Amino acid sequence: MAAQEDMLSYHYEFRDPIHGLIPLNLAEKSLIDSDPFQRLRNIKQLGTSYKVYHGAEHTRFGHSIGVMHIVGRVFDSIWRQPKSKLKDNWNYDEFQKYKQIARIAALLHDIGHGPFSHVGENKTYGLFQEMIDVNNQVRDGHEVYSRLIIRDKLGDEI
Questions:
Q1: Average model confidence (pLDDT) for the chain?
Q2: 3-state class of 4 per DSSP?
Q3: CATH at 30
Q4: What pLDDT is attached to residue 150?
Q5: What is the domain range of residue 7?
Q6: Total domains present in the chain
Q7: Pairing relation of β-strands 10-16 and 131-132?
């Protein structure tokens, strides 16, 4: 249990221009340090908008870390409510477990994005080939690639 506690203890911080200091644990930091996540530094959040709007320089990297932080804050806010239904079903350790799962899901939600963000998913000019998803439905887009990256590249780490 001590090794797991070390992985989930908040010992790191990420300085974010919007949210300030974002606390990270070793599990989150190791995912952020991974090659699949680091490539998000080069993918613009707003596609090609930065060509028109000089301030549209946001990346999927910063966006994903920010989403993880907001999800954690939402969980904490709900837990602090005096009549929180979470407390009826979970003890504090269970709450922390589900909060961690949600934070990692939020962190990795865009891991499959390709260049130019959603612009590259266009049916006519798209970069993604169609694939069969887990429900035997034909899909294309970053969601399929996100699932594959999580399963094949990050699964053991998670």
A1: 82
A2: helix
A3: 1.10.3210.10
A4: 82
A5: 2-112
A6: 1
A7: unpaired
The Cα 62–Cα 45 span in angstroms is 9
Q: Is residue 118 part of a domain?
A: no
* Residues 5-46: tens digit of each pLDDT: 677 788 899 999 899 999 999 999 999 999 999 999 988 877
- Contact between 13 and 21 (Cβ < 8 Å): yes
The whole-number pLDDT of residue 89 equals 85
- pLDDT by 10-residue block (mean), the chain, 158 residues: 65 92 94 94 80 82 96 94 84 93 95 68 54 57 75 82
CA angle 111, 155, 70 (to 5 degrees): 45
**Buried residues in 57-96 as b, exposed as e (16+ CB within 10 A):** ebbbbbbbbbbbbebbeebeeeeeeeeeebeeebeeeebe
**pTM of the predicted model as reported, rounded to 2 decimal places:** 0.78
How many CB atoms sit inside 10 A of residue 123's CB? 9
Rg (CA), the chain: 18
